[in-house]
Amino acid sequence: MLSVQLLIDKAIEICGSASELARRMGVDRAEITRLRKGTRPASPEIAAEIADIAGMDARQAAIDAIIERNAANRKGALLADILGKGQAVGAAAMLDISYKGDSTIDTATIKNDSAVVKDRIHRV
Question: Which residues contact 103 (CB under 8 A, 6 or more apart)?
């Protein structure tokens, strides 16, 4: 589960400042502070946008925000169970595809400064 604070910290690191992150998202700087402190819960849309800026999994961030928003009621556990299954199935499918022979492993010559390195690469 990706915490909103982690996502915001990573996005700030990428943007250079909280003010720049706020500008990029089209919100006030104070909104970023409220989200980071947890005084305002992140909507799935906001969580996904921050995750995208941070270079992290936006889908997972949106799912985590939905589960967190419903954590205090019966829906929270139900959604965690249902959405967690979907994430596991998606990950399993990706692993299955990548190891079925739909991809090839090859040897490529990679120039690394002054040395030439033979390295195995995975091509999809």
Answer: 122, 123, 124
pLDDT tens profile 37-92:
989 989 999 999 999 999 999 999 998 888 888 777 877 778 778 877 555 444 44
How far apart CA 49 and CA 22 sit, in angstroms, is: 11
* 16 within some domain: yes
Q: What is the DSSP letter of 100?
A: T
Domain-located, residue 111:
no
Based on its alpha-carbon atoms, the radius of gyration of the chain, rounded to whole angstroms, reads 20
| Strand intervals (E) in 18-95 | none
Q: Which tokens is 110 given?
A: 């990679």
Q: Which domain holds residue 77?
A: 4-97
- Global confidence as pTM: 0.62
CA of residue 10 relative to chain centroid, distance: 10
* Residue 56: closest CA among 103, 107, 11, 120: 11
